Amino acid sequence: MSVEPRTPLGVLELLPAQQLAFQRMLDTIRRGFERFGFLPIETPAYELSDVLLTKTGGETEKQVLFVQSTGTLEKARDGKRPELALHFDLTVPLARYVAEHEHELVFPFRRYQIQRVYRGERPQKGRFREFYQCDIDVIGKDSLALAYDAELPAVIYGIFAELGFGKFTIKINNRRLLRELLESLAIPAERHADALHEVDRLGKQDRTEVEARIAAVTGADTARRLLDLLARPLAELPASGGKDDLQRVYDTTLALGVPASALQIDLSIVRGLDYYTGTVYETFLDDHPRIGSICSGGRYDNLAEHYTKSKLPGVGISIGATRLFSQLLELGIATATQRTTAHALVLHVEAPLALEYAKLAAELRAAGWNVEVYGGDDKLGKQFKYADRSGVPLAILYGSRERDAGVVKIKDLRAGVEHDVPRAELLERIRALLHTE
Amino acid sequence: MSVEPRTPLGVLELLPAQQLAFQRMLDTIRRGFERFGFLPIETPAYELSDVLLTKTGGETEKQVLFVQSTGTLEKARDGKRPELALHFDLTVPLARYVAEHEHELVFPFRRYQIQRVYRGERPQKGRFREFYQCDIDVIGKDSLALAYDAELPAVIYGIFAELGFGKFTIKINNRRLLRELLESLAIPAERHADALHEVDRLGKQDRTEVEARIAAVTGADTARRLLDLLARPLAELPASGGKDDLQRVYDTTLALGVPASALQIDLSIVRGLDYYTGTVYETFLDDHPRIGSICSGGRYDNLAEHYTKSKLPGVGISIGATRLFSQLLELGIATATQRTTAHALVLHVEAPLALEYAKLAAELRAAGWNVEVYGGDDKLGKQFKYADRSGVPLAILYGSRERDAGVVKIKDLRAGVEHDVPRAELLERIRALLHTE
Questions:
Q1: Taking CB atoms and an 8 Å limit, are A11 and B48 in contact across chains?
Q2: Nearest by CB to A64, which of B3, B70, B251?
Q3: Cys-Cys with A69: which of A200, A215, B120, B372 at CB 3.0–4.6 Å?
């Protein structure tokens, strides 16, 4: 032993049982994406730095992790920016991918992408340097119908309903509507971003305080009128394009099967990025508001202006799976209920029957069960201890006694009950035992 | 447009239909691993450099890709090695993981791991800097029974039989047996590595040439006698521990359901790494020997000697999924047969019925089908063009004519046939149409 084994800071490394639960979560997300006909893509973990960092300023660059071989480390000492950098989200790689493969894709292009992304920020609690994002986007060429904006909350509803992390609410709003409301109050365009930045605090901070902050941007009277507008039901707002869009997205989302109890128009939802121009989404677990939005996104005008002359409007949404899972683990909601992938463990009862254990396992696997064979000729006590610790539900015992009696012994480790089963009925009995779970 | 969108060299980026095929391959591999009760783990893409590079020499370090934030780039200019490096395989991370989490794991620890790994080598055809590895290992504490050596070829057989890339052969050998054979010919221990390095060329190079190369190490007479031994059936070799082990692994593998036609004892299989001490494996596609081994591994004495005092013997095997898939693509064997995840596309026939399309899609999705809704009110010709290009098998049409007649029109785009189906029979008919595939 020469080096202490340590995990780098800012990553979520899981024990196998937790990994099983996380993997199930990612599988559910993937299935939910495919249920709506989204197509998978994967991009490399790193991009060329000049491609990745084209549209971003120095702040982003500070958070980027660069990739270098020993050879290029030499060059770096000359002060050159490294040629490769790990992607910090899946949106810039998507833009690059769509622009690069534009003529090979079918539009509207419906893609999903489940990958880890990397941020160079200082590791601290709840902040990861490596984390999974699960993204879907629908990308149009030249235009993209509003109906697609309703699909994304329907996808999200299906996934979180299946994940079973408790009640949740998908909140939707429309940036165009917000812009129109600000215009109706004669707030100058150059103050919109500041005003919306404060509006975004509604629901997270005290209303009086938010009003004071908006007042600093717009004046007190306008601030009060704005908050009054934002508190009204959509139907009571003045007619506008953004209002119509939001209503249509809401109605279509309900028609797609999302219950009204899980969908809410919330005019205080802004989303930080200026990038968004129409519909915006955030999603909250009703019983755990402090986790914040677990799934956010929106409509944007042009995905890849830096890479192509084609206009590519789109709408997308992203689940931050690592952060969500780690918080649910802490809250005890995402529990590692399953410790093993195996349904049965064939014990090594007598050495002369070793090949019989292999054959029994092969038979069970061919029937679709996941099966382990205990490899060594350890005492049965030690084998049962392994079975117990591994969490396998059934142990299969077959010694000369069982062979002579034409039976196999199944020990149900969940119930602590043994069954002597005629050899010919083994598969049937195992099916019965495992389906009672 | 300001930057040309380009993918970095040395990565395999796939179009969606190819990605679907690759994803199916990874899913099959994962299912195959779980069928034997292996447990998933994932480790971060990067490790601390001092942990990752502990046991490797300068050659490995040259092939490593380091990770740096802008802040640490400064330090690198002082000539310091960066703190983080991308993992170049999954074995060193496994060793670190097992040593770090030793007291939380159940031994024998059966883990699978499907992740991308990174090599800083010069990109060239068939050489990837980023590629998937799919690894399984069984790790014992202090000891690990030989029976586990037989499981790995059984796992591999199940997976490649299901993948359907044609006939394949799993070749097994035993390094202990090789050592014993070299000893029986009085080849000094310090020449074993050189001699085995040449033996490894058998089957890849001309036998006469290999014999000459071995003769340069051992002398001509010994070389001839060695090749004579290696050409014999196992049963005709002198008795030895390695011979017994190899025979037992072979017999147990057959008992696990691997047909003799897919399993072959081949005494010329060496595997490059000194790391291996017992059973070794290589796997070849019978019709494509030039691809080389598609899945290799072996038994080792101690996984994590640099990280822990515990002795952790193990046996493992690895599928290089990216390289394999890219070669199968080139050969036309891994074909992207499925272009979409969707089973049906609901067309937008008449704008006033838009919510009906959403409801139809919701109904089909609830029944388990993957469904898209065409979002815009484009002409039907354009919508069918999209359907055709996307590859969806069924289009669903529902206009006022169909509504008034109480039917839904299903167009089977594979057969070019339309069916008017009573509304109440929609699900049943779709099931029938999609199951005929």
A1: no
A2: B70
A3: B120
Structure tokens at B289: 């020997």
Under CATH, which number does the domain A344-435 receive? 3.40.50.800
Contacts of B305 in chain A (CB under 8 A): 1
Tell me the chain B residues in contact with residue A151 when contact means C-beta distances shorter than 8 Å: 373, 375
Predicted confidence at residue A437, as pLDDT, reads: 47
The total number of residues written for chain B in this structure? 437
Q: Six-digit token pair at B392?
A: 């969806």
Q: By the CB < 8 Å criterion, does B359 face chain A?
A: yes
- Ranges of each domain in chain A: 344-435
Among the partner residues A120, A146, A358, nearest to B255 by beta-carbon distance: A358
- Which residues in chain B are contacts of A68 at CB distance < 8 A? 65-66, 68, 76, 82
Residue A272 — very low, low, confident or very high, per pLDDT cuts 50/70/90?
A: confident
Give which of A32, A30, A44, A40 is closest to A110, Cα–Cα.
A40
Tokens 């983080």: give the residue: B84
Distances (CA, A) of B170 to A32, A245, B203, B296: 37, 60, 14, 9
Strand, coil or helix: what is A373? strand
Give kind and range of the element (H or E) at residue B384. helix B380-390
- Do the chains contact at B3 and A345, CB–CB below 8 Å? no
Share of chain B above pLDDT 90, in %: 85
A61 to B79: CB separation less than 8 angstroms, yes or no: no
- pLDDT mean over B112-132: 90
CB–CB contact B5 A355 (8 Å): no
Contact at CB, B341 and A111, closer than 8 angstroms: no
Query: Which tens digit of pLDDT belongs to each residue from A108-166?
Result: 999 999 999 999 877 777 789 999 999 999 999 999 999 999 999 999 999 999 999 99
Instruction: Give the pLDDT mean for B239-262.
Output: 98
E strand or H helix at A345 = strand A344-346
- Work out the pLDDT band at B74, boundaries 50, 70, 90: low
> Can you tell me whether residue A194 is helix, strand or coil?
helix
| ipTM at complex level | 0.95
Q: How far is CA A306 from the centre of its chain?
A: 27
Q: Is the CB of A3 less than 8 angstroms away from the CB of B307?
A: yes
- Which of A 189-228 lie inside 8 A of B, CB atoms? none
**Is A388 a residue whose pLDDT tops 50?**
yes
Query: Helical H runs in A101-174?
Result: 147-163
Peptide bond into B108 cis (omega under 30): yes
CATH architecture designation of domain B167-286: 2-Layer Sandwich (3.30)
CA distance A29 to A291: 19
Q: Do B324 and B291 touch, CB atoms closer than 8 A?
A: yes
Q: Say what the pLDDT of residue B99 is.
A: 97
* Closest to B246 measured CA to CA, from B192, B182, B179, B168: B179
